[in-house]
Amino acid sequence: MSPLRLLFLLCLAGAAMAAPGTGFALVRVWPGWKDAEDFTRLREYFGAAPDSGPRRVLRTSAGERAGFYFLVRTRGTAAPEAVLELMVLRPDGPEPVLHRFPAALRAGEEVVELGLTGEAWPGGKRAQPVAWRLRVLDAGGRELAAERSFLWVDPAP
Fold first, then answer.
1. Which of 65, 88, 110, 143 has the maximum number of C-beta atoms within 10 A of its C-beta?
2. Would you place residue 155 in the very low, low, confident or very high pLDDT band (cuts 50, 70, 90)?
3. How far apart are CA 147 and CA 24, in angstroms?
4. pTM above 0.85?
5. Is residue 18 part of a domain?
6. Looking at the domain assignment, is residue 153 inside a domain?
């Protein structure tokens, strides 16, 4: 290999390593209904305050536990001022509904449950979203990662 070609390949490899990346990913998103009892911990039966355990649970109505949840597993660098932006096309209407959940995401792997509870999910236990999109945004509004259901289609610009 010629020295000039070798120098070119080394410069190209160095540029690829120095290219900025978010270093953040949505590993998996599991949507599904959860009853209020699914969140009851043993210690609550002995008078302790409600506790979500090792996972963080963010709800649209803090006082209500039953609802439609999106269990989100993230991996990557820390995002201390992240916002999880969830758009859901519910079965009761033609327009998507936007929900924003502020969350300081730690480096490594983390699990967060986003709950549509109370008025945010009027469909009840048997209802399923028609389509959904989840975006993780940094403090400046830049998209770090995104995931969507099969039926989600972004509108044309």
1. 88
2. low
3. 12
4. no
5. no
6. no
Task: Report the SS3 class of residue 8.
Answer: helix
Q: How many domains does the chain have?
A: 1
Amino acid making up residue 25: A
How many other β-carbons are positioned within 10 Å of the β-carbon of residue 133? 19
> What is the spatial distance between Cα 22 and Cα 146, in angstroms, rounded to a whole number?
12
Q: Kindly state whether residue 7 falls inside one of the protein's structural domains.
A: no
Q: Which domain holds residue 56?
A: 23-148
The gap between the terminal CA atoms of the chain, to the nearest Å, is: 48
| Residue 92: closest CA among 115, 125, 122 | 122
The bridge status of strand 143-148 relative to strand 97-105 is unpaired
The residue count for the chain: 157
Q: Which residue has the tokens 């990346």?
A: 21
Q: Give 29's DSSP letter.
A: E
